[in-house]
Design goal:
Shape: elongated
Number of domains: 3
Number of strands: 3
Amino acid sequence: MHLEVLALRHQLAVYQRRHQRVRTKVVDRLLWALLSRAWASWRDVLVFVQPGTVIAWQRRRFRDHWTFLSRARPGRPAVAKEIQDLIRKMSRANPGWGSPRIVGELAKLGIRVAKATVEKYMVRSKKPPSPTWRAFLENHVKDVVSVDFFVVPTITFRVLFVFVVLAHARRRIVHFNITEHPTAQWTA
């Protein structure tokens, strides 16, 4: 009996505050969701909305609740701002250090972080830490040679095997040899 009086008075309060159409608030939806759980004949006194609407409110509330819980803290907990700043400071002060070294130094201070975390907060330098591939080739072109081993069919249908060594510094042939029957000793 008390639940019925509560339900009827609540509906009357909702009607009295309405403008053009009934506007429910979160408290109204919660009240009717609780009434539908606690009282068997709640549908008999419900006037201002359909009973299916109340059930839809419950489903939406349930879905939103679990969506909030599953979205609350994805992944690892965030690293404190002080540790982020320390990682940035260490990487700026020691540009030669990689993430494993910074992880080790932080561990000495009693700060445990993953290598991926350090890589995330490290300051990247503008220039590459080591020479580029092009610079390497320019510095070592005098020492670089290419070796090629290929076959040449002749007009008489013989197959000749050609071995060539090229120096890149002057683009000249250092060594070449041709044979019909290559062996390991000949190649060496």
